[in-house]
Design goal:
about 220 residues; alpha+beta; Jelly Rolls; eight-stranded antiparallel sheet; two-stranded antiparallel sheet; about 25% strand; globular; binds zinc ion
Amino acid sequence: MIKHHIHPEILMAYAAGKTSPSVSLIVASHITLCSECRKGVESFENLGGKLLEDSDPVEINSSSLESILGKLDNIELDDQFDEPTDKVNSFKNIPSVLSKYLPDTDILTDEWKKSIGGIKYFDIDLGDFKQNTHARMLSIPPGRKLPHHGHESQELTLVLEGGFSDENGSYNAGDVAIEDENNIHTPVSDPSEGCVCLVVYEGKLKFKGLFGPILNILNK
Ligand SMILES: [Zn+2]
């Protein structure tokens, strides 16, 4: 059961088409797994975005966004997490709106880059790198403690397999953790299953732990 959801203000911005492509991707992925947030998006869509009329528009890559939002029409809500995908054989919980951006054959092909500590990652380029927004899939082995780190701005993490825990609680498949510049956290992956997740962050991570300098280089 999903315990950690996407904040209503993000759902509202998404419904109005004002989130970046990377944030749109993580929202689209979460709402295929979460009926509560999907209903939230539908409610905001019904409001016609009127609540956002006074807010500043966000510049986005419209073709990427249309690609993501266009896919939404075909999304089947799936609270049982068993949506099959053709591309990803090893991981049953990858929504198709997300898997279409991953390497074709398997989630952990050679196209995934290796980081320290057995962590693998795959960057999804949705055209908003220049706006300092990044979407990255992470596969973290069991029981791995990530360096203590803070953020320049917001980070959203959607758990797809396994889970992790940090100072704020535990997160399992479907859960979204949202951190901002006021949080410094030390996540630890699930001791038996590890964690596969989609992370979207704005700005550079500021790693402060033992491996911080290495990870900071990786993020340049
Ligand atoms: Zn939710």
